[in-house]
Amino acid sequence: MNTQRLWYLEGVDLFGKLCTIKSKDSPSIAEPRKFKASEIIYFQDTEAKYLHVIVDGRVKIGSYLKDGKEVTKAILGAGEVFGEMALAGEDIRKEYAEAMDNNTTICMLSLDEIKNLMKRESDMSLRIMKWMGLRLRKLERKVELLAFRDARTRIIEFLKDAAAWKGKPIGHEVLIRTKLTHSDIAQLTATSRQTVSEVLNQLKSEDQIYMERGKILIRDVGTLK
Question: How confident is the model over 77-106, as pLDDT tens digits?
Answer without folding.
Answer: 887 889 988 888 889 999 999 999 999 999
